[in-house]
Design brief:
alpha/beta; 14% strand; elongated; binds nicotinamide-adenine-dinucleotide; 3 domains; 458 residues; 42% helix; N-(1-d-carboxylethyl)-l-norvaline Dehydrogenase, domain 2; Rossmann fold; six-stranded parallel β-sheet
Length: 458
């Protein structure tokens, strides 16, 4: 079949896989290929056992697979053939040298830029899909356009705003698609090509066009604002616990103000995920490098509050269980950083599980989708942790339960049965304010939640 254009995406991860599957589904006139250096990932994308868990993803992939959606490890050949190349490789926090622990590690991204250059013999549009520091497009342009073969590359920024767990919904009906380009004639022409792709299913008024720097910065800003709301409500949850105010009531009361809005006001053990912390620290690093110390400090405090909230959660368990949990069995229900994903990157459960193990508790971890990833996260302490997919078995004989992911299934468990199988006094620490605390208290549990006084029998 003759395709209108050939699209390539480098990086078949949580972003590259679902976004390209959606483009392929909605735009059968484009050939979409996704490549990765990870052969196993590519094999899994070609199977019924996808490398990531995401509700609704499998049917989307299956419909387009081998029609106009292809997964491959042949990176060089696919670069040569492509007209439009999305770069969706990982951009983790740098762990070495200058900026370690703060700046983005751009080594994967730069390798990709050089590989594109080495394998191109026609003009191409290169799209930054990965989240990158502001002004990365300039570095990319410099590398790509350093060739003396007369090949021109136009670099666009098209940051991805999908949220794991709702990726398919977010991709199918996005709040907005943002496309930034240089304000030159070829830049605007390239931008129009990308707008035309999304316009196959996204209404025009939801496709925002901007300059390339605004697009790059908007992604970091969006994540910083979202995380800031979580840290803001979490900081006040601590005050509620001291004053008999109820953070859920406070959140509801302020959320009805249309200027504030009611989203992202849920108190919890803290935010996780691969992006929030990394992107804020990246923003902090950029601000510092421009001498904007106050701005950097302001945003850094969002991460600090999050770390404090995780720490506070472990301390609460320890203090309320008579200052010792050594030898006590604690069932951690939920390890994914949020519900409906198997992703455990930066999950608060990592910090909590490690804190409990440090206090020599016998930690049992249960999760419907994240046990494989949990084992990888805790690789160095796996001898001190057990894994049990069935929450009832995990809770059996335990002294306490800690809810760390808001999986819907945890709401409907038979807590009387669980209580009967536990050591007494039985404790429950609800790190997501997910459960009916009054009911649990009536069953006999000592209940501790976020931002509300405890319900105790002891
Ligand atoms: N995960 C999210 O929810 C999310 C949302 C929006 C934006 N982002 C951003 O998107 C980017 C990708 O995130 P992700 O979660 O998909 O990461 P990921 O780690 O799941 O996937 C990245 C993939 O890139 C591959 N890769 C790395 N170097 C490569 C190379 N040289 N050639 C080919 N493949 C290569 C890796 O093998 C990996 O499979 C990051 O910048 C992230 O910040 C992520």
């Amino acid at each position: 079949m003759n395709f209108k254009r050939k699209i390539l995406c480098i990086g078949a991860g949580y972003v590259g896989g679902p976004t390209m599957a959606m483009i392929a589904l909605k735009c059968p006139q484009y050939r979409v290929t996704v490549v990765d250096i990870n052969e196993q990932r590519i094999r899994e994308w070609q199977s019924d056992n996808l490398p990531i868990y995401e509700p609704g993803l499998l049917p989307v992939v299956k419909e387009a697979l081998n029609r106009n959606l292809f997964f491959s490890t042949e990176i060089d050949r696919n670069i040569k053939e492509a007209d439009i190349i999305f770069v969706s490789v990982n951009t983790p926090t740098k762990s070495f040298g200058q900026g370690a622990g703060m700046a983005a590690d751009l080594q994967y991204w730069e390798k990709t830029a050089r590989q594109i250059l080495a394998n191109s013999d026609t003009d191409k549009i290169v799209v930054e899909k990965s989240t990158l520091p502001i002004r990365t497009a300039r570095a990319m342009e410099r590398i790509l356009n350093s060739n003396d073969r007369g090949i021109r590359f136009e670099v666009l920024s098209n940051p991805e705003f999908l949220a794991e767990g709702t990726a398919i919904k977010d991709l199918e009906a996005p709040d907005r698609v943002l496309i930034g380009s240089r304000e030159t004639e070829p830049g605007i022409r390239a931008r129009k090509e990308l707008v035309d792709i999304y316009a196959n299913w996204v209404p025009h008024e939801r496709i925002i066009e901007s300059n390339v720097w605004s697009a790059e910065l908007s992604k970091l800003t969006a994540n910083a604002f979202l995380a800031q709301r979580v840290s803001s409500i979490n900081s006040l949850s601590a005050l509620c616990e001291k004053t008999e105010a109820d953070i859920n009531e406070v959140a509801y009361a302020i959320g009805t103000d249309s200027r504030i809005g009611n989203k992202f006001l849920k108190p919890s053990v803290g935010f996780g995920g691969s992006c929030f912390k990394k992107d804020i620290l990246n923003l902090v690093y950029i601000c510092r490098s421009y001498g904007l110390i106050e701005v950097a400090d302001y945003w850094e405090s969002v991460v600090k509050i999050n770390e404090w909230q995780e720490k506070r959660f472990v301390q609460n368990i320890l203090v309320n269980m008579f200052n010792t949990i050594a030898g006590k069995k604690i069932a951690v229900l939920g390890f994914a950083f949020k519900a409906d994903t198997g992703d455990t990157r930066e999950s608060p459960a990592i910090y909590v599980a490690r804190g409990l193990v440090e206090e020599r508790a016998n930690v049992v971890i249960s999760d419907p989708k994240a046990i494989i990833n949990a084992k990888k996260e805790l690789f160095d302490i796996n001898a001190c942790v057990t894994y049990e997919e069935d929450p009832y078995r995990a809770a059996e004989g335990s002294h306490a339960i800690a809810i760390l992911t808001e999986w819907a299934v945890y709401k409907t468990l038979d807590y009387k049965r669980i209580y009967d199988s536990m050591e007494k006094p039985a404790f429950i620490f609800d790190g997501r304010n997910l459960l009916d605390h009054k009911k649990l208290y009536e069953i006999g549990f000592n209940v501790f939640s976020i931002g509300k006084g405890p319900l105790k029998h002891i």
